[in-house]
């Protein structure tokens, strides 16, 4: 943000910017940056993939918790949004989202009360997960006491995984428990394949997707669902192609509404999801292009205390580090417009502290104090949650708009 007169108690947020600002000249760094061209490509790419697969897209909003991105996803054709908590759902609702899959259990009376308040809006279509009779009973009693109906979906899991019934017998017993609660409506079945690992992960994921459909058919045949076309949903951001293929093989289009829930695709990354996308393209030769990294974090070279070693004003408070260190991409000269970035990808971040990153400087790369480095990230979820504001930029690195996060 350009210098302005403020009261003595005001605080300038990191990365604060205004539309029209130039990243290399006007924006306080470090800053969270999304490139509009790559973002638009990703929005179109995933929506087309899901639609061509005969499914609907409910992107996982917990990746960004940026309502401006939610609206872009919905405008491109998303059926609804997936969220993880009642408070996330409330933030999305407050910004116009009217269909939510909460891919999690709704537990605790205060959280139930948050959802109950929104259910007073007849236009709000909400579904949460259940995997235990105790939760079913608590939900049934809470919403019955308020004269409300709650849509629930049975979560089916895997041994050693996350939430979810661990056997088909548990699924059937839970369906009976739901039927005994007049305030609850069973609207579908859900699973998450991202916890299936190992050498036989692909086979395991395919079998898991097929089992979801088989359970859905059994439940539908016994009249357990409250919808004529119940929801069958799975898919994170790594294996969505396998889930889409298996759902289609099982002819989900004819009897069920297939919903895929990838979230990280919206900005993609330079790490684990880049690798996952390469695997998708290896499996699907009909996809001639993939997702593009759209998110970066920009920061200054702060200190160069030793030869071949630079300290960057970027740390754990600014960028994800759980799935790999940030990746240096380009160096920019501060204040120089139009900005011409130099490749510094041969440099390497070796460690991050709260506010500092240690970077080895590759031979032939010349840096100065104050230089600006753009960094790619791995696992966008845990970069977004470190920011209150970010910048959407055009090809010329001017700020098109700023956006807020709501974690």
Q: How many DSSP-defined strands?
A: 18
Helix content: 25-40%
Distance between the termini: 23 Å
C-alpha Rg (nearest Å): 23 Å
H and E order = EHEHEHEHEHEHEHEHHEHEEEEEEEHEE
Largest sheet report: 10 strands, mixed
Average of pLDDT: 95
Describe what this molecule looks like in 3D.
By secondary structure, the chain is α/β, with parallel strands linked by helices. Helix content is 30%, strand content 23%. It is built from eleven helices and 18 strands. The strands form two sheets. Strands 1, 10, 11, 12, 13, 14, 15, 16, 17 and 18 form a ten-stranded mixed sheet that branches. Helix 3 links the parallel strand 3 and strand 4. The longest helix has 21 residues. It is elongated and about 70 Å long. The N terminus is likely disordered.
Pick out its properties.
alpha/beta; single chain; 10-stranded mixed beta sheet; elongated; 8-stranded parallel beta sheet; 18 strands; 407 residues
Summarize it.
This protein has helices at residues 36-52, 67-75, 86-94, 109-119, 133-145, 168-179, 201-221, 240-249, 252-255, 272-283, 381-384, and strands at 31-35, 56-57, 81-83, 99-105, 125-130, 150-155, 184-190, 231-234, 257-260, 295-306, 309-312, 327-332, 342-343, 348-352, 357-360, 372-376, 389-393, 399-404.
SSE layout:
Layout: E1 31-35, H1 36-52, E2 56-57, H2 67-75, E3 81-83, H3 86-94, E4 99-105, H4 109-119, E5 125-130, H5 133-145, E6 150-155, H6 168-179, E7 184-190, H7 201-221, E8 231-234, H8 240-249, H9 252-255, E9 257-260, H10 272-283, E10 295-306, E11 309-312, E12 327-332, E13 342-343, E14 348-352, E15 357-360, E16 372-376, H11 381-384, E17 389-393, E18 399-404
Parallel strand pairs: 1-17, 2-9, 3-4, 4-5, 5-6, 6-7, 7-8, 8-9
Antiparallel strand pairs: 1-10, 10-11, 10-16, 11-15, 12-13, 12-16, 14-15, 17-18
Helix pairs in contact: 3-4, 5-6, 7-8
């Amino acid at each position: 943000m350009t210098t302005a007169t403020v009261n003595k108690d005001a605080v300038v947020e990191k990365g604060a910017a205004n539309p029209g600002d130039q990243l290399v000249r006007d924006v306080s760094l470090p800053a969270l940056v999304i490139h509009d061209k790559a973002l638009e490509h990703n929005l179109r790419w995933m929506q087309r993939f899901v639609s061509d697969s005969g499914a609907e897209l409910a992107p996982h909003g917990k990746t960004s918790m940026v309502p401006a991105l939610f609206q872009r996803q919905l405008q491109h054709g998303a059926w609804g949004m997936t969220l993880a908590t009642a408070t996330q759902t409330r933030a999305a609702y407050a910004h116009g989202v009217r269909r939510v899959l909460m891919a999690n259990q709704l537990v605790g009376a205060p959280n139930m009360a948050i959802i109950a308040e929104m259910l007073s809006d007849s236009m709000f279509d909400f579904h949460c997960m259940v995997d235990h009779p105790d939760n079913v009973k608590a939900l049934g009693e809470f919403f019955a006491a308020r004269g409300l109906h709650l849509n629930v979906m049975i979560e089916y899991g895997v041994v050693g995984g996350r939430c979810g019934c661990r056997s088909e017998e548990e699924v059937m017993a839970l369906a009976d428990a739901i039927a005994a609660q007049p305030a609850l409506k069973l609207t579908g079945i859900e699973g998450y394949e991202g916890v299936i690992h190992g050498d036989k992960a692909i086979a395991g994921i395919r079998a898991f997707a097929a089992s979801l459909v088989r359970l859905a058919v059994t439940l539908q045949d016994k009249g357990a669902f409250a919808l004529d076309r119940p929801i069958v949903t799975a898919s994170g951001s790594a294996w969505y192609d396998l889930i889409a293929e298996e759902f289609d093989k099982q002819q989900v289009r004819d009897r069920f509404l297939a919903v895929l829930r990838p979230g990280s695709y919206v900005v993609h990354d330079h790490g684990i999801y880049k690798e996952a996308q390469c695997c998708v393209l290896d499996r699907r030769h009909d996809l001639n292009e993939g997702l593009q990294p759209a998110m970066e974090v920009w920061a200054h070279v702060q200190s160069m205390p030793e030869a071949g070693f630079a300290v960057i004003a970027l740390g754990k408070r600014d960028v994800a580090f759980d799935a790999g260190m940030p990746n240096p991409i380009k160096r920019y000269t501060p204040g120089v417009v139009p900005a011409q970035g130099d490749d510094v990808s041969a440099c390497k971040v070796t460690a991050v502290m709260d506010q500092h990153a240690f970077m080895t400087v590759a031979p032939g790369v010349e840096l100065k104090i104050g230089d600006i480095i753009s960094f790619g990230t791995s696992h966008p979820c845990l970069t977004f949650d470190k920011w209150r504001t970010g910048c959407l930029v055009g090809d010329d690195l001017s700020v098109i708009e700023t956006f807020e996060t709501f974690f």
